Amino acid sequence: MTKRRWSDLPRWQRASALALAPLEVVTTTVAVIDLVRRPRPQVRGPKPLWFLGFLVQPIGPIAYLRWGRRPS
């Protein structure tokens, strides 16, 4: 199996990656800042596990922002 290069990808895949990459960075940044600033009682589950969950892109940060926070 050969490695695919950026130039081997169809134009629509390259455009999609370039369009979605900034959104992924912003979502992850917002989630990390929120988790750092939020008091422990307002977080569902252990904070260290949420940080590990952020490595699963883009699902981890979205899951935290949707289900990981308790109302203040």
CA-to-CA gap between the ends?
51 Å
**Mean pLDDT across all amino acids:** 94
In total, the number of strands is 0
Characterize the overall form: elongated
Beta content: under 5%
- Which structural class matches the secondary elements? mainly alpha
Low-confidence stretches: none
Main pleated sheet? none
Helix percentage range: 55-70%
Number of domains: 1
Give the number of helices.
Answer: 3
How do the helices and strands follow one another from N- to C-terminus? HHH
Report the radius of gyration as a whole number of Å.
Answer: 16 Å
In terms of topology, how is this protein built?
Layout: H1 11-37, H2 47-53, H3 59-68
Q: How would you characterize this protein structure?
A:
With 72 residues, this protein is an all-alpha fold. The protein has one domain. The protein has three helices and no strands. The protein has helices at residues 11-37, 47-53, 59-68. Helix 1 packs across helix 3. The model has no long low-confidence stretch (mean pLDDT 94).
Features:
mainly alpha, elongated
Brief account:
This protein is mainly α.
